């Protein structure tokens, strides 16, 4: 049957896909309603699709079908084992923990690589990406991103730093700014009288 001015054929239903309803994935065209996971039938978009050859899946189903296999993958907490089940039953849980000398000497690199986080200089707690504000070259919680002297909440336009600590512009000027007559220093005013 001829393709009268239409688009490509849908990879799922093999009917004509017109440009207004076309979604492309792996060089193939789909109707919006046909762009669904082959396993669970959930609707997909460019952020949730995972393709394998001519098949499309949501990321969850793709991981179950084509992801790594073994104990610990998709089954809660655990560790990957390539040995048959029960072969290492004589090993106890504390043997699997790395010794302090075996840990990575650069905590920032390992925390970024494995989903950990940096520490806030103000409260020393973990700072995760959703709550991170950078100041003085360090990550801070949004709630900890305050002037060290007056406690005023800071923004990128109102923050100044000295020796790794954060200050609002007013406190910074009072404590670290220029001193002398006409610059707001009361001690200099008293000396002149």
Automatic annotation (TrEMBL):
GO terms for cellular component: nucleus; Z disc. SUPFAM superfamilies: Glucocorticoid receptor-like (DNA-binding domain). Residues 8-68, 118-178 form the LIM zinc-binding domain. This is Cysteine and glycine-rich protein 3 (cardiac LIM protein). It comes from the Eukaryota. Residues 80-121 are annotated as: Disordered. One of its GO terms (biological process) is muscle tissue development. The keyword Zinc applies. CDD domains: LIM1_CRP3 (cd09481), LIM2_CRP3 (cd09482). It comes from Seriola lalandi dorsalis.
């Amino acid at each position: 049957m001829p393709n009268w001015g239409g688009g490509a054929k849908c990879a799922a239903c093999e009917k004509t896909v017109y440009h207004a309803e076309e979604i492309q994935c792996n060089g193939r065209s789909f109707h919006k309603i046909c762009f669904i996971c082959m396993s669970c039938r959930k609707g997909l978009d460019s952020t949730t699709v995972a393709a394998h050859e001519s098949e499309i899946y949501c990321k969850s189903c793709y991981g179950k079908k084509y992801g790594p296999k073994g104990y610990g993958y998709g089954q809660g907490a655990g560790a990957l084992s390539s040995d048959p089940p029960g072969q290492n039953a004589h090993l106890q849980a504390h043997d699997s923990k790395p010794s302090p000398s075996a840990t990575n000497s650069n905590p920032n690199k390992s925390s970024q690589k494995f989903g950990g986080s940096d520490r806030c200089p103000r409260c020393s707690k973990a700072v995760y990406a959703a709550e991170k504000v950078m100041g003085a070259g360090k990550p801070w919680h949004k709630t900890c991103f305050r002037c060290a002297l007056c406690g005023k909440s800071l923004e990128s336009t109102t923050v100044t730093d000295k020796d790794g600590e954060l200050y609002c512009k007013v406190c910074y000027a009072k404590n670290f700014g220029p001193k002398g007559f006409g610059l707001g220093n009361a001690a200099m005013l008293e000396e002149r009288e």
